[in-house]
Amino acid sequence: MAIKLSNRCRLIKPSPTLSLSAKAKEMKDAGIDVISFSVGEPDFNTPEYIKASAHKAIDANFTRYTNNAGIPELRQAICEKLLRDNGLKYSPKEILVSPGAKAAIVNSLIAVCDDKDQVLMATPYWVSYPYQVALANAEPVYIPTCEEKGYKIQPADLEKAIKENPCSKVLIMNSPSNPTGTVYTQAELSDIAEICIKYNILVISDEIYERLVYDDAKHISIASISEEMKQRTIVINGVSKAYAMTGWRLGYAAGPGDIISAGGMVQEHTTSCVNSITQYACVTALKEEDDSIEKMRVEFARRRDFLYEELKKLPHITCFKPQGAFYIMPGIKWYLENNNQNIKTSDDFCAKLLDKYYVALVSGNSFGMEGTVRFSYANSIENIKEGLNRFASFLAELASGR
What we know:
The chain has helices at 7-11, 16-29, 48-59, 72-86, 101-112, 129-135, 155-164, 186-198, 227-230, 257-268, 276-287, 292-313, 333-337, 346-357, 381-400; strands at residues 35-36, 95-98, 118-123, 139-144, 168-174, 202-206, 233-238, 251-254, 327-328, 359-360, 362-363, 373-376. The chain is an alpha/beta fold.
C-alpha cells in the first residue's frame, strides 16, 4: 500500500516559471531556437569584485559551518545597508540570513502562522506565495487588483478583506512587484500601514527588487513609515536580483527580535546556515559596491522602454508600464475570446506559443490573473526583438482565424 502524502504537499504544485524554463531548455538542447521570457534571473554575470571575494574565502579555507543566523560581519553589513538605504535601524540580532529570499519568507511564515491563520496577498501575486503559505499550514486570502489602478492594493479592499476573514494575521507585500513591476508610493504605503496597525496585521515586505526602479519611482519600505509599523514588519531582501547572484542563494529577513529568533530556530532544523563562501562574498557585495548595479539597472530600463512601446503597438493588447523589477504583464483577453483554435485560457495561449513559435512566456494563471501573460525582460535586446516578432505573428494568426 502506498504511503499517503501530507495534505500540504498534495496542495503544492511545481513552480510554473521553473517548469516552463526547464521545458524551454529541453527544446533548446534538442536544437530548437527557443526564446525564453520565463525566468526571473538577470542575464548579467556576478560583478568581478564579488567573485574575487569568493575566491579569497576559498583560498583562506573559509569553508566550515557558520553561525546559523549568518556570520556577524554579514549581519552587521546588512544592518548598515538597511540604515543607509532605507532609514531602518536594526541590530544584528534582528537579522536572519537564509539560503535565498524564498527561505526567509517561509521561515517567517512558519514562525508566526498556526492552523487556520490567514495570509493576505494581492492578485496578481508571485507564484510561490500561496504555496509558501500552505507550507506554514495557513490559508491564502486574495485581494484583487486591476491594471487601471496600477495593480495596487486599495486600502478599502484591504480593510474589507480583513473584516471578511477574521483569522487574517499576515499581509504579504511585494514592491517592486513580480509579476507587474508596480511600485508603491510612500502615501500609498502609509494608508496600508494605518490599516495594518488598526487590525494588528504583520506585514512580510518582499523587497528583493528594491534596486531595480525606473523613471521617478522610488522604493520605500513600509517598515519606514513609522516605528509602530516597523514592529509589525518583516523586511525580506537579498542579493539575487540586484547583484546578479541568483545561484549564490542568499536572502535575509529583518524584523522584531522574537520573530527573527523563531525563524532562526526553523532554519536551524531545516537548512541551517547559508554556505560560508557566499556569506563572505556578500559582505563585500554590500560594503564595497561598484557601479555594476547601476549599469544593470540602466540596461533593464532601456529594455523595458523598448518592450513596452512595442507591445503598445500590437492590436488589442493592454499593458501597464512597469516601474520596477524586470517584468511586464500584457493583457491578452481579446485573443482568448476571438480565436478558433480552442485557446480559452492563458495556459492554452502560452502552450501554443511555445509549441508553434518557440517563445516561452508565463501564463497569468500562474499569478492568479487570467487573461494575461508575463514577459521577463532579463534578456538581450536582440532576443526581445525576435521574440516580439514571433509573438506578433502568433497574435496575427489568432486574429485571422487560421
